């Protein structure tokens, strides 16, 4: 791999010094004094040492969040004041966009150009959008009918109140953006937070912690405990002082979170895996659909929960489309994310590299044929070729399981009924893509697909305004949009007899 562009001095300084936990507005070492390393996946080299928080640190952080929720200035601020702080957080993210993009590029491996164009502005926009909700969380007036109290008159209304102390556990694929998706609605609703970033990519969350204090967020409102899922994450999910847990990551860990939450029956929202179908009809704009299928899987190294991993193509255009996608796969410029012309970086970690190459080996054993890619790329980093697999059967492991890498499987379909059955034949239901010029067909199919998001003649379009989440084992609840607010609010009915 070619030598990558050097990072800016400010980023180098931040990413190369030891990073601490953020508890009650102070950066502190872990109680145990332990640290772990975060690695640059483009080179395998250690970037920085990070405080390894565990159950004891989680407990300190939860107590700080509880104090900030019950007594702190945060709960006494007006919604407008809270919204203005959130707006400043968005502004500061954009003022530091180059640095944050470099941190996510170094820590995660993703192309710098993509982090700068997508991850960072989306994170800022999420805070701006959610800042507007802080002043609009109103209940309603209600006129109750009470059959056993004839003649009685009431004045009744509902209040929407923050759920309390929230635990948030996030993955490594969009490090800053996943932190923003979680923190934005929690802050808009007036909750306080303990956030646990993924062990692979803690840097931008810690930097965001600094920026949030600079924006005027009171101490203890957001606490950040870096560390491992099995220790810090599990302790957060089980903690009796946490009122709600929000998780994004694998379906397997999502089930552990749901179990851990039963102790105090904390509220749970889950944004989990996917195996999303991207569907191309014969009447589609074929060049646009081919480009969309390639982007739908190779964007962010395929490490996207909504990636279009199952490509369904109507039989008579199948060969043409899969050859087009294979050609696009071969043209993707793979390299270190810091290089300006890189289109796809390395996978995030050795573990993820082994997981993805393990699936490629399973596919080969099952007789799947790689029209493009199919192998790891030599080098010190965790690079895998953009891969297009054909000759797959509906029950093959690569068709059923989430690979979370740049691997697409292609299958033919005959008509809409055959397609809808195949597309919905998955334990997941996160997203789907439909490519056709027939607008009625697109809308009818959008209704039949069991997926939380359906993209028509486009793919991977995200916006703070659009609810995002999954049917079936892709999760509970929605992120973003107005809908996410309900994850963080309790509704109270107040009834006054007149
Ligand atoms: P993961 O284990 O589900 O990690 C997600 C988050 O959960 C991380 O912060 C992780 O901490 C934490 N965690 C792990 N075990 C936990 C536990 N027992 N209790 C509480 N928190 C826990 O995902 P992964 O291992 O990084 O990736 C594995 C697979 O998950 C991927 O191949 C992909 O299929 C899927 N995935 C999905 C998404 C998505 O957006 N839906 C994102 C990432 C991964 P540590 O990282 O510190 O262990
Ligand atoms: Mg893990």
UniProtKB/TrEMBL annotation:
Molecular function as annotated in GO: oxidoreductase activity, acting on the aldehyde or oxo group of donors, NAD or NADP as acceptor
Domain Aldehyde dehydrogenase, residue spans: 30-494
Family matches, as Pfam families: Aldedh
Keywords annotated in UniProt: NAD, Oxidoreductase
Active-site feature positions: 271
Family matches, as PROSITE patterns: ALDEHYDE_DEHYDR_CYS (PS00070), ALDEHYDE_DEHYDR_GLU (PS00687)
Family: Belongs to the aldehyde dehydrogenase family.
Annotated protein name in UniProt: Aldehyde dehydrogenase family protein
Taxonomic source organism: Candidatus Aeolococcus gillhamiae
């Amino acid at each position: 791999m070619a030598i990558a562009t050097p990072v800016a001095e400010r980023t180098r300084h931040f990413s190369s010094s030891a990073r601490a936990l953020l508890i009650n507005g102070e950066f502190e070492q872990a109680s145990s004094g332990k640290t772990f390393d975060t690695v640059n996946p483009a080179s395998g080299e250690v970037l920085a040492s990070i405080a390894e928080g565990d159950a004891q640190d989680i407990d300190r952080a939860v107590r700080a969040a509880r104090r900030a929720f019950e007594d702190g200035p945060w709960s006494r601020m007006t919604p407008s004041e809270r919204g203005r702080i959130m707006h400043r957080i968005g502004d500061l993210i954009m003022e530091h966009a180059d640095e944050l993009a470099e941190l996510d590029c170094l820590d995660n491996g993703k192309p710098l150009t993509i982090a700068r164009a997508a991850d960072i502005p989306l994170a800022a926009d999420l805070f701006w959008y959610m800042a507007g909700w802080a002043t609009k969380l109103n209940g309603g007036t209600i006129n109750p009918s009470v059959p056993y109290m004839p003649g009685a008159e009431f004045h009744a209304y509902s209040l929407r109140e923050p759920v309390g102390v929230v635990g948030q556990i996030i993955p490594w694929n969009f490090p800053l953006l996943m932190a923003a998706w979680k923190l934005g609605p929690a802050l808009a609703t007036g909750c306080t937070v303990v956030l646990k970033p993924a062990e692979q990519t803690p840097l931008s969350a810690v930097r965001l912690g600094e920026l949030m204090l600079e924006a005027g967020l009171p101490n203890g409102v957001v606490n950040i405990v870096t560390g491992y899922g099995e220790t810090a994450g599990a302790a957060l999910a089980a903690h009796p002082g946490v009122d709600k847990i929000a998780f994004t990551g694998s379906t397997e860990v999502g089930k552990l979170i749901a179990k851990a939450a039963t102790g105090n029956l904390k509220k749970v929202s889950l944004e989990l895996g996917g195996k999303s179908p991207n569907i191309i009809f014969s009447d589609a704009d074929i060049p646009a659909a081919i480009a969309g299928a390639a982007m739908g899987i190779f964007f962010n190294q395929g490490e996207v929960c909504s990636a279009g991993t199952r490509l369904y193509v109507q039989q008579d255009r199948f060969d043409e489309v899969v050859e087009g996608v294979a050609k696009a796969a071969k043209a993707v410029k793979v390299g270190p994310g810091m290089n300006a012309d890189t289109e796809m970086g390395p996978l995030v970690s050795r573990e993820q590299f082994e997981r993805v190459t393990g699936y490629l080996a399973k596919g080969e054993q099952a007789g799947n044929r790689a029209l493009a890619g199919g192998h790891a790329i030599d080098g010190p980093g965790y690079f895998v070729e953009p891969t297009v697999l054909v000759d797959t059967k509906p029950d093959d492991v690569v068709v059923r399981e989430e690979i979370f890498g740049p691997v697409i499987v292609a299958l033919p379909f005959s008509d809409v009924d055959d397609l809808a059955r195949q597309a919905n034949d998955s334990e997941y239901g996160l997203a789907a893509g439909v490519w056709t010029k027939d607008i009625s067909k697109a809308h009818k199919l959008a209704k039949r697909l069991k997926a939380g998001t359906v993209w028509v003649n486009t793919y991977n379009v995200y916006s703070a305004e659009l609810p995002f989440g999954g049917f079936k084992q892709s999760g509970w609840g929605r992120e973003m949009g107005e809908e996410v607010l309900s994850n963080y609010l309790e509704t109270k009915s107040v009834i006054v007899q007149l």
